[in-house]
## 1
Amino acid sequence: MLRFLTAGESHGPCLTVIVEGMPAGWPIDIDRINHQLARRQKGYGRGGRMKIEKDAVEFRSGIRWGESLGSPVTMVIENRDWKNWKTKMSADPADRDDSIVVTRPRPGHADLVGTQKYDHGDVRNVLERASARETTSRVAAGALARQILERFDVRIMGYCAEIGGIEADHSEMTPEQIFEASESSEVRMADPAAEKAVIEKIDECRKSGDTLGGIVEVCATGLPPGLGSYVHWDRKVDGRLAAALMSVQAVKGVEIGVGFHAARVRGSEVHDEIVKDGDGIGRASNNYGGTEGGMTSGEPLVVRVAFKPISTLMRPLKSVDIATREESKAAVERSDVVAVPAAAVIAEAVVAYELTRLFLEKFGGDSLTEVTRNYEGYLEQIRRIGN
Ligand code: EPS
């Protein structure tokens, strides 16, 4: 089935992604992958790195004349910043320079535990791979994989619901409307008043050397009922999405549908009633965000993801120097004030990848023809249920 591996340090020569399990004969549009990478680079409050990079994939295997071959797809993304790090990140032992060792771990980052676990005396050996630069690879994997779902009219839309405690009012809008309007917003929100307040707060944080987090929402429409399964814990769509999203740098929480709110109300107030929907069967509401019993219900899938503030503070917090054991201030790396607008694109890609994996587990085959036949046969089958 579908799987992927990523490799690459933040300031190494490149990022590499290998996606294995793509069915053969799928038309693959590289521009749609690069479009997602460009979206990930945007957002008010990002740091200097995004001015250096212009992320784009190069296919190194698995694609011929615009179609997947069924073999592993290798994508390489160049790090333009590499030219400034060639000796600092060199593989050659002759380039070693102990004067540039980083020894003051940043609270909230992987720095301290990473040095303890891997027995490193240089925090750089940890932070290079722990960096959210790695999410470029995941966005590429998601952008490739979702081209399978898009053929069957599945839409996956990510945007920001809240940044630095300021909530966007999206209450009167459909997910499509929110998504379309948020695409032209610097903070990926479809609420101009919230956008203005967020920008002011980011400016304020930049001045005081602080950072912000926020909540993003991802909505997927057009999914058939029955992706995932109730029969075993590791096949449940909720668990799969939560695990995939919790693995994104800085994520501290995942909610599906109304999430934690469901714990505070009566069953009669929250369960989605089953009603006739034209010739089919539907739901009167979608409080459970498009999943029931570990399976997609056929209603729009709605996931919210909480990102903590960026760990690198320009006015650093307390730390302990791992070389001298003296209390000091944490090291300062170039960084962002906020990356939540980019996080919406990352969460969208992660959801897209995981849903594609679930889709192929259900309808999988070796070719476009086989997957399409399986999918259409299933739609025909559920139309007959109860008739
Ligand atoms: C990022 C690239 C990084 C950071 C950011 C995400 O580049 P650099 O370290 O050269 O500035 O801007 O990573 C972090 C905030 C982090 O804490 O790791 C990117 O490509 O998104």
## 2
Amino acid sequence: MKYLILFTTMLLLSSNTNAQKSAIEKKVDALLSKMTLEEKIGQMTQVDLDAIKQNPDHVTKYYLGSLLCGGNTEIEDLSPKGWAKAYEYYQSLALKTRLKVPILFGIDAVHGHNNVDGATIFPHNIGLGATRNEKLVEKVSRITALEVKGTGMQWAFAPCVAVARNERWGRTYESFGEDPELAKSLGAAAVKGLQTNNLADQTSVLASVKHYAGDGGTTNGKDQGNTECDMKTMKEIHLAPYIDAIKAGAKNIMVSYSSWNGIKMHGNKYLLTDVLKKEFGFKGFLVSDWAAIDQLGKNYKDVIEISINAGLDMIMIPNGPTQNNNYVQFIQYLKELVDEGKVSIERINDAVKRILTVKYEMNLFNNYKVDKKLTSKIGSKEHREVARQAVRQSLVLLKNENNVLPLSKSLKRIHVVGKAADSIGYQCGGWTISWQGNSGNVISGGTTILQAIKNTVSKNTQVTSSIDGSGAEGSDVCIVVVGEKPYAEMFGDREDLSLSNDDIQTIEKAKSSGVPVVVILLSGRPMIITEQISKVNGFIAAWLPGTEGQGVADVLFGDFKPVGKLPHSWPKSMNQIPINVGDKNYDPLFPFGYGLTY
Ligand code: BGC
């Protein structure tokens, strides 16, 4: 009798937990129970388009769970329709598999849907950091999601919540700023904007919060370098933004190339599993960065074992069958590791469950078609209007001697100079169409600063220009637009952040004309301007504003009063870097949070 009661109670309890399982958990369990090991490993495999395009049938053959388009990966037709067509093609291959699990298609939509020709390009995160405006960042990310969904894709590798502590770092502009509070609040706002509060919504896009963790804290600002600090500092500065992102609903996190105290993050079980998944309660899945596990050691099979056991759930693989460390090897080795007992089936099941749970939460099984209404809205006027708002709120006015700004719209002649004055490429920076960006006309649509000035002034105002700074004599004001040539990742690491010689010459020449000079700097970080700013009358840090140069003219001519505040302490010289708010003996050229208005 006693045993019968115990047995009934146990039965009741277990059926109760089964009843408590959510509908999604039940679906995940049911699907998982049907899957072979090969199908499970397929879900954990993410392959770049360049690697798969030789053998597209491999999407079906290997049951791939995800594809991505990396920074330099191109398809033939970069238009919104071209991308939508590519997406539909690859998705159709996934739907040919036995279990018809749709692929998640990921792309670096880091300042708008920036691989698509004609898309709306927003300021890079550093500029959004200057706005201090959560609502705006949410709106910007919402529009990005609409444009991403317009090409069918459902996963943006954004936001980057790195806290950039050393401006030598080539990814400083991908960070919202040097203070973790910015990455916490604006990172969470970006997650909300991309995902809404309902991942299953037709217009929601899965966010990938990156790069976990410490990417912005490396010694000397070296990209993919080593972050040296104790756990307290790590938590307060670099881990904190993830807690807010998870609260905002983040279900995917990308792991950082960097190391923490000498241990590569991709092999760091403590920070990936114990801290992130257990302590912070992260229920989503972890994706590796581009070929990042390859850096864990020489033997590919060993590094797969290390990274999966550390807690990685999906591996991003850029290599195809003719290259080393390719996806066919990955699949084969992971299978062998399970057979050999080196990676447990529980670990595999956990990873696949996490991935499938997100796919169900996104309603991906029913919701994988391209919404053509959204395709036609990519780069629309309404979307660009939001980008323009973001641009004008992101500008930081550093100097305004004798109220040289705002300018009157009815001056007789405005002279505009500098290599960046008529260049969408300089405005957009890296991660625009190509990985490194391009200083020319990188993308269709948008307005350069020169065009925007012409659009704004009265009919009788003459706008003249030169690239080298010559010809300003006799004009009412000379506007100089200079800045950093586009770059991305390690290609932007710098030991010297002085303005380039040609930019210095341009400013000198403008100054020698004797007319008032206003400099607009397009850069991915504070630069060393101590000497130049002392010589000119006005100075605006415009960061990397993207396609909508009209937002710059809005501020120049006083249609919008500057509100931007520095997201970084502005150093006087290279010797001061790293310099961050709260440092001892803090004496920057301009402090964190500085910004004038009219
Ligand atoms: C970058 C990531 C990016 C990935 C895919 C890597 O090189 O570190 O930020 O999401 O490439 O393009």
